[in-house]
Design goal:
0% strand, single chain, mainly alpha, transcription, RNA_pol_sigma70_r2, sigma factor, 8 helices, Rna Polymerase Sigma Factor, Chain: A, Arc Repressor Mutant, subunit A
Length: 213
Amino acid sequence: MNDPSRIDADLISRIRGGDNDAWQSLIDRYEGRLLAFTQSRVRDRSSSEDIVQDAFVGFLISLPNYDYSRRLESYLFSICAYKLTDHLRREGRRPALQLHQRDSGSADDVAFVGSARMASSIARSVERKEIEHTAICDAIGEQIGRWKETGNYEKLKVIELLFVVGLSNKAVAEKIGLSEQRVANYKSDFQIRLKAIISRMGLDEAVFPELAN
C-alpha cells in the first residue's frame, strides 16, 4: 500500500477503532512536517512543539467528522494553522491566514503577517478560550454522569488514571489488570464521545474550527 491517500485512510480507520499503534504512526508521519512549518513562523522549538501537539489534539476532536475525500495532510496543516494563529495572537501579533486558495497540503498554503494586535482581537481570543474551556468541562461532566448512571466504573477508573493521574496506557493496564488494547479502546471511546457532545452544542465554527468540514 504505497498510495499516500490509502495509507492515510487506513490509519484513520484504525485510529477510530482504538489502535494506539496507528495513532503513533500518524504522528510519526506528520509531526516533522508540522514542526518545520510551525517553527519557521515561531522560531521557538518549545512553542512549536506545543502548537503541533494542540493540532493533533484538535484532529482527535474532529475525527468523527473527518471527510475522507479531504487530504489528511492539508487538513492537519489547516488545524495547525488555527493553533498557530491563536499562539501568535497571544504573543501580540496579528496573523493573516490564507487557507483556501489551494489544497496542496503544503506549509506554503498558509501565510502569516505580523502587526499590532488590536484590543478587540485580544477580547475575542480570551472569550473564545473561555467558551472552549466551558464546552470541554461540560462535555466531560456529561459523559462522566452517563457512565455513573450506567455503572461503568471500570471506564471511569481508566479515564481518571489516564487523564487525571497522567499514566500511560501500559501503566493503567498493569495497575487495573486489563489488556493494553482494552485501555486504548476506553480512551478512544471517551475522546470520541466528548467530540460528539461538543459537536452537538452548536458552537460557532470559530470556537472549534477543527470540527467544521
